[in-house]
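explain this chain.
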Amino acid sequence: MAATGDDAAAMDSISRAPAAHLAALNAAARLSCPAEAPEDVAESPAVAPKKPSTNSDGGVETAEEAVEPAESDINELCTDMFEKMSVFLQGELTGTCEDYRLLENMNKITSLKYMEMKDISINISRNLQDLNNKYASLQPYLDQINQIEEQVSSLEQAAYKLDAYSKKLEARFKKLEKR
C-alpha cells in the first residue's frame, strides 16, 4: 500500500533525517580531530546524492544522502562561529559590567543620601534638645503665669460677689430712703 499526501511527506522527512544527522556527526568528528592527515579525508568517500526516483508507489521519493562539506569550509565556518561567539560573550560581559557599575553608582548615591539624612536628623535632634532645655528654663515662669491666672479668676469671682452685694445694699438704701 503506497503512502500519499501528508503520510508521504512525513516518511520522506524521516528518511532524510538520519542522513542529515550522520553528516552532522561526521562534521563534528572532523572538527574535534583537525590534525587528521589529508589522506584520511581522501579515504572517506564523498557520497553522491541519489536522484529522487518515482516508482509506482504513489509518488514516494527516496532519501538523498548528504554530501559532506569540504574541510576548508568547515574551518571557515568554525572560525566564523568562534568570532561571533566571542562577540556575543564580549557583549554579554560588557552588559554585565555596565549593570554592576550602575549598581555601584546607585549604592554610592544612596549612601550619600543617607549620610545627608543622618546629618539632618542630628540637627533636628540637637534643635529639639535645645527647645526642651528652653522650655524647662521657662517652666517656672509658666507656673507663675498659671498662679496669676488662678488669682485673677478668684479676684473676678470676688468682684462679681461684691457687685451683687452692692446692688442689694443699693436697693435696700433706696427702699429705706422712700419711707
The CA atoms of residues 85 and 91 lie 10 Å apart.
